[in-house]
Fold:
Amino acid sequence: MNVGIIGCGNISQIYLTAPKRNPALEIVACADVFLERAEAKAREHGIRALTVEGLLADPEIGLVINLTIPAAHATVALQALEAGKHVYTEKPLATTREDAHKILDLAARKGLRVGCAPDTFLGAGLQTCRKLIDEGVIGHPVAATAFMLGHGPEGWHPDPEFFYQPGAGPMFDMGPYYLTALIHLLGPVDRVTGSARISFAERVIGSAPKKGQTIKVNTPTHIAGVLDFAAGPVATLVTSFDVWAAQVPRIEIYGSLGTLSVPDPNTFGGPVKLRLAGEEAWREVPLSFPNHENSRGLGPADMVTAIGSGRPHRASGALAWHVLDLMHAFHDASREGRHVLLSSQCAQPAALPLGLAAGVLDD
Ligand SMILES: NC(=O)c1ccc[n+]([C@@H]2O[C@H](COP(=O)([O-])OP(=O)(O)OC[C@H]3O[C@@H](n4cnc5c(N)ncnc54)[C@H](O)[C@@H]3O)[C@@H](O)[C@H]2O)c1
Structure:
């Protein structure tokens, strides 16, 4: 199946090199609202540059990878589906629940597939963690903690305003990595609660070209959430742009027989560490799977392979919709002072089988 990319910004480079790592991916064209950006990428990667309309009208393209900014994700995904193409979108699936519904409904009506980033859970680190949990090495999972703590991107990002507007903030920007990893490891979530605050009313940009300009903060920048998983475990997730320094781990899974230390879910590799009841120290577990370098593109490669064989794909629209619903639910719970029951559900994505070569997915 031929693939076209819409959105030729920062993240497009790693996707454009994905066919080298994933034999199932055949990227033939790219497009952007700024045609010159598409032309530059097309020249570099030996593919065709098209207008967005031209790419959507091209009958040879069966799947669109949507790498536009979050505010445009839904519009572009709906355009791709209307044009009869499967679509894989960078995270988040959409910014509102309404738009996510529209995307999934249209895809169902047209018999097309929706996929969504992140695909880091298909990497060596998180697949090794899943194997250890599924094999019962830590017993049955009882709880988890996950922390994404930092002081925001305005010190380095060239255009950081959008991070402090509704639909962004630390939860919508980084939450998808943590929530997708937790659902991959523990299954779907039944209910959440949380508290959110804006700790600093303004941010001062430290990076060129807007150095010294201030940003008015219009969305919570510290969100502390609690999640009850359908299978029983209770997890704590804190995402923050308000913290200068911290020593907490990224993700830990606590089981009846021991603890699993999970690698950064914004990466594909390790380290994976274990410490079982009675053990005096942590030990690093060798990774059992390939794809430990930056392997963005595994998600759409899995989608193309799955479309070919008819099996479900792993980085699915249903999973991304559950993640989006959760991110909104933390904010709703804080505003309304209650637990929020999730109406979205998704199946835990299938674990990868052992023994696949790097970049190759199972039929
Ligand atoms: N940059 C990163 O490190 C990174 C990492 C992981 C995920 N992401 C995600 O990838 C997506 C893109 O991020 P980025 O950093 O590449 O952003 P970017 O702003 O660098 O690039 C986005 C590109 O999309 C184009 N675009 C916007 N609206 C469009 C539309 N309607 N039709 C066609 N083109 C359109 C823009 O012109 C731009 O070239 C975001 O969803 C982001 O969350 C980014």
In short: The mean pLDDT is 97. Residues 123-289+321-341 form a domain with the Dihydrodipicolinate Reductase; domain 2 fold (CATH 3.30.360.10). Residues 155 and 214 are 12 Å apart (CA to CA).
